[in-house]
């Protein structure tokens, strides 16, 4: 057996992981090879050194401190959960969204009525007026449908 | 507490009895702290990391599958937590001289306690010089006494990889601990 192969087996020998046949071959090589013998003794010494290393215990009150941190985290909601879980915030978001949709609807409806942007600015009061409102402007999809269906359409 | 009792506790925890968790902390706190202590080298870092391990475990215990063992699951969280922690720290300069000085002499000393501390310091200095993965392998095997199979589960790799990594790390330690 080559030294390179034996050196790869040292760690398993230390852990008593070699099967009996491997172990016999390994020990036979070691008796004739001082280099591998030294490597094995070195790893064995480290194994015993680390095996006898001090075992540290958790500091006193460790579990209590962990539980206190857990309770603190449970009590204190995160930044985003504050917004997402508040009913008042949800209502405000809904109202704001509805207002935005209404505004877009009014502006686009006004453009459909005139076919172009108004020559003079339309005041807010006028924009709310139903006088300007057409349910199916002729150049809208609804208007085209009504004209195809033979319905009356007054501009 | 055997594995059956432990699974019962975990089921109670999942059912909503969160106070059960303190029992699990008390069962594993010494092993997790000891692992963190050797992976990080400093008592305060080890306590912070060990606390974080249990906080992560608390948040994720509901996803824990009872077919794997709780302590290998905790060890995996601990190794990942410590390696992340170590990566964030600035590496300390390598001082081989101090390592040689820290090693005890071959002659028996009357100050056994002092010598034990010196050995501990020498071990820690050598461990600190290893890459994170290698340090985890050697600590899990030599200090925590895990089997190859348990280590493979903790480090999420194969038994063959564990054996070859352990062999390389032991050779590296032999180089780092003069006289071994």
Q: How does the SSE layout of this entry go?
A:
The complex is a heterodimer of chains A (155) and B (180).
Chain A: H1 3-14, H2 20-32, H3 34-51, H4 62-75, H5 79-85, H6 87-114, H7 124-127, H8 141-148
Chain B: H1 3-14, H2 21-40, H3 43-60, H4 70-88, H5 96-102, H6 112-128, H7 132-143, H8 148-154, H9 159-176
Helix pairs in contact in B: 2-3, 2-4, 3-4, 4-8, 7-9, 8-9
Structural Rg of chain B: 18 Å
Report the C-alpha radius of gyration of chain A, rounded: 42 Å
What is the terminal separation of chain B in angstroms? 40 Å
Kindly report the average pLDDT value of chain B.
84
On the 0-100 scale, what is the average pLDDT of chain A?
Answer: 80
Quaternary form? heterodimer
Anisotropy-based shape of chain B = globular
Low-confidence spans of chain B = 93-106
Topology pattern of chain A, helix = H, strand = E: HHHHHHHH
Main sheet summary of chain B: none
Strand count of chain B:
0
Pick out the low-confidence regions of chain A: none
Given the C-alpha coordinates, what overall shape of chain A results? elongated
N-to-C SSE string of chain B, H for helix and E for strand:
HHHHHHHHH
**How much helix, percentage-wise, in residues of chain B?**
over 70%
By DSSP, the count of extended strands of chain A is 0
Distance between the termini of chain A: 102 Å
Provide the β-strand percentage band of chain B.
under 5%
Q: Which class of secondary structure composition applies to the elements of chain B? A: mainly alpha
Largest interface, and how many residues on either side?
A-B, 33 and 39 residues
